[in-house]
Amino acid sequence: MFKFGFGQDIGIDLGTATVIAYVKGKGVVLREPSVVAVDSNTKEVLAVGEEARRMLGRTPGNIVATRPLREGVISDYTVTEKMLKYFINKINGKTIFAPRAMICIPSRVTEVEKKAVIDAATQAGARKVFLIEEPIAAAIGAGIDIAKPCGNMVVDIGGGTTDIAVISLGGSVESTSLKVAGDKFDEYIIKYIKKKHNVMIGERTAEDLKINIGCVYPKIQDTEMEIRGRDLTTGLPKNITVFSSEMLEAMIEPAMMIVDAVHSVLEKTPPELAADISSRGIYMTGGGCLVDGLDKLLQEKTGINVMIANDAVSCVALGTGKALDNLDAIDR
């Protein structure tokens, strides 16, 4: 257990796939899947995070392992609150003082969705809650000086949403948020394997395929991976070998949706800022940007240099953490 004194400030990247927490002066102290296992009879939370993720698709009837956030927003308020409470307690240890929390949200969420995040975090034990837009936090985490009057483009691909923003003078000038990200790639892989091999696989297997052999740009050498699923003809378990060239077929459609969204944001960007982006390049952050070849695809389609930020997965949490330094000014 971590123990901290008064004035504990926590930055939380409340992701669809992963919750990452940053504590002022400590760095990233928690990185767990946003999965909760609940007993459907008693509504009691049985497991949270990694332990609950291992239960996905493998639980008896009365235990439901769910992801309470879908496409970047809260889909199950009660479970999200319990999950946040668990994580805040885990970070805060035995101190009696409630922490202040800075939480990341996608750039295009509604007022109702913002209120849901604030309420859930307050109910979970935060003394005061502040919100920060994901692309801005990602830009700060990637080490970009967002206060300068020049254009920077950030493409943050998480589990549920892709946030694209052109940032200048500390705010986003042009932005969009689309519900196509890591989870959507998994969905397309499941559909493809079902159609091509007549085999049903689960979310975890799809994710393993995406991480190990997934690509959205032709590879020099075709790689393969053996997986097991359920044969839809016989209903029995079946082993199949999948190739990275098949993954390219499965994943290219959602990848092109992201590329098109970047294109449309660039089209709406003022010419001066567009010129800045063209010379400075596009920064990619978030776990979803690590899909093999996504940077090459974006670079080829836009003609602009594309860079993947260092520690892309933690960028948003790190940016949220750095934003904590200005909390006192915001609070006032």
CATH top level label of the largest domain = Alpha Beta
As laid out across the biggest beta sheet, the strand order is: 3-2-1-9-10
- In terms of structural class, how would the helical and strand content be classed? alpha+beta
CATH homologous superfamily of the largest domain, by name? ATPase, nucleotide binding domain
Total number of domains? 2
Got a strand count?
A: 18
Kindly report how far apart the N and C termini lie: 31 Å
What spatial form do the alpha-carbon principal axes imply?
flat
The number of helices is 11
User: Major sheet: size, sense and barrel closure?
Assistant: 5 strands, mixed
Low-confidence runs of at least 5 consecutive residues:
1-6
**Share of helix among residues?**
25-40%
Order of helices and strands, N to C?
Answer: EEEEEHEEEHEHEHEEEHEHEEHHEHEHH
Mean pLDDT over the full residue set? 88
**Overall radius of gyration:** 20 Å
CATH topology of the largest domain: Nucleotidyltransferase, domain 5
Secondary-structure arrangement, i.e. CATH architecture of the largest domain: 2-Layer Sandwich
**Strand residues, percent:** 25-35%
